[in-house]
Amino acid sequence: MATLGATGFLNQTQGSITAAAPLRGGVVATKMNSLYFGTFQGPPFVWSFVLASGQIGTQAPLSLVQLGDSVAFLGPDDFYLFDGYSPRGIPNNLRRWFFDTATPSQISFIQGRFDQQRDCVFWHFAGNGSTSINMWIAWSRRTERWTSGTLPVLMVYPTAIPQSAPVTDHGPAYVDQTGVSGAAGPQHDRDALHVGYWRGR
C-alpha cells in the first residue's frame, strides 16, 4: 500500500510520458525524445525529477529492462543503458540491421526481458513487415556481443499497450509494480506522472 504519493508534470520537454521504471531507489521516466530521473525527497515536494537527456527517450514502454543498477531500453536510433545519471549507447554491431528489419509501425510494441542466468537482455519484435512478434535481438552483458534470431511461433499482442491500472480521472494509466503511473488521458494531461512511495514495515 502506498504511504505517500504525489502528482507532478514533466514539462521541461514536449510530449507524453511513454514509459517508467524503478531505478536505484528512484524512478526513470521517458518521453519519445527525452528522459527524466526522479528521486524521493519527502514532504512537502515528495519527488524531485531532473532532465537527464533532452534527445534520448523511447516510444516502446515495454522495451525498458531493469538490470539492478541500470535500465536498458530501445531509443530513437540505438539501444541505450541508463544508470541514473546519463544514457549511453550500448556498442552494437547489429544496430543498422535491427532498424532495417523491424517493422516501423510495430516498434512501439517491442518487448524486452532479462535472462539473469545467461546475463543477456532480449528484445522481441515484429520484423520484415510482420505485425506480430516474430524475431529477437539479444545483448550479452558478459561478452558485450550481440546476436539475433527468429521465433518459431508468432507472438500476438493487442493493438494497444496493455493497461494494468484502473481508470483514473484522466483515463487509463500505465502502472508498474513500483506504483509508477503515466496518465494516458487527454493530450494536455499526458505529461503528468503520479508516483507512489512504499515504506517497509
Please tell me about this protein's structure.
- The protein has 201 residues and is mainly β.
- It folds into 2 domains: 1-89 and 162-189, no CATH class; 91-157.
- 3% of the residues lie in helices and 45% in strands.
- It contains 1 helix and 16 strands.
- It has one helix spanning 95-101; strands spanning 4-9, 19-23, 26-31, 34-42, 46-53, 65-66, 71-74, 79-82, 87-89, 111-115, 120-125, 133-140, 145-155, 173-175, 180-183, 192-197.
- It has a 4-stranded antiparallel β-sheet, with no helix packed on it.
- The N and C termini lie close together (11 Å).
- Residues 158-189 and 196-201 have low confidence and may be disordered.
Beta-strand percentage range = 35-45%
Order of helical and strand elements:
EEEEEEEEEHEEEEEEE
Q: How are the strands of the largest sheet arranged?
A: 1-16-15-14
Calculate Rg over CA atoms: 17 Å
Residue-averaged pLDDT: 79
Poorly predicted tracts of residues: 158-189, 196-201
Largest sheet: 4 strands, antiparallel
